[in-house]
Design brief:
Elements: H1 14-19, E1 30-37, E2 43-45, E3 53-55, H2 60-70, E4 74-80, H3 97-108, E5 113-118, E6 132-133, E7 136-137, H4 139-156, E8 160-163, H5 170-180, E9 189-194, H6 201-207, H7 227-239, E10 243-247, H8 253-262, E11 267-271, H9 273-284, H10 290-304, E12 308-311, H11 314-323
Parallel strand pairs: 1-3, 1-4, 1-12, 4-5, 5-8, 9-10, 10-11, 11-12
Antiparallel strand pairs: 2-3, 6-7
The structure holds ligand PBG.
Ligand PBG binds next to helix 6.
Length: 327
Amino acid sequence: MDLTHRPRRLRGSEPVRRMCRETRLSRDSLIYPIFVDETLSGRRSIDSLPGQYHYGLDSVTEAVSECLDAGVGRCILFGIPAEKDAEGSSAWAEDGVVQQAIRRIRAEFPDFYILTDVCLCEYTSHGHCGVLKGEAVDNDPTVEILAKTALSHVRAGADMVAPSDMMDGRVGAIRRTLDENGFQETPILAYSAKYASAFYGPFREAAGSAPAFGDRRGYQMDPHNRREARKECALDAEEGADMLMIKPALPYLDVIRDCSQAFDLPMCAYQVSGEYAMIKAAGERGMVDEHQVMLESAVSIFRAGADMLISYFARELARAITEGEIG
Ligand code: PBG
């Protein structure tokens, strides 16, 4: 019998292929980033992120209803404050932009799940992720401020905090502060391996958070390093992180793979602004099929080992899952 012409692909048609998919996507694993601008009323489109908006405090709940309409029940909030100073003091103000946004969302949508990005770069006049000593970020005083900021978000009603600054010891400090104040049940999603990436460009324009001088290489990771990501994840895990995050996503699939296998904590990936902007730009120019590239990128990130995804495409992805295009 000649066996050489047997098909090696999976036999059967679409129902079989769907049954045998190795990677499953769920709307429950999607998180949508929302930018809230304290100086704005209504919404304004973000030039560097076509299809994305800055929301004023009076319209932030519109962003939430749009998420819910699409089947997305989780967001991560980024604030753009009216006032910036050297310490980023509006980050932990009780009536800060994120704190106010949380209260407004809570009032209208009590069950909508709210994560907050905890960092100082949107709040400091110099645009660095902490307070400075000379031209470098001063780690320990910054960690104290970050812990205060996280606590103020949770007091305002945030369900989870996500420190994105990459300072040493910040996860432990936030955990202690939350515990001491009765928030033992509030999880921390640590931006554990955050690379010093050019893919954050559109975000920095959107959040007005580009550093006024220098760069973030002193506290973000060198893209040449893979094992170092495991070290960062291990430290965050030890300090009490409930979930780990790798960022950006698509250019760092190897890191997602590695770290999701090495740690028994849920793994989040952040498909960042530059990844989104590239797909949009190429799609708009007819160079690629935007929708298909979006779907394939998301599937790849989950296939690599992510359990959840922060993405500006979260709503479109949720619709695609509902329609059965992916998942
Ligand atoms: C704040 C922060 C950044 C992003 C998320 N949190 C910017 C940065 O590190 O410069 C980037 C997200 C994106 O590009 O979509 N530190």
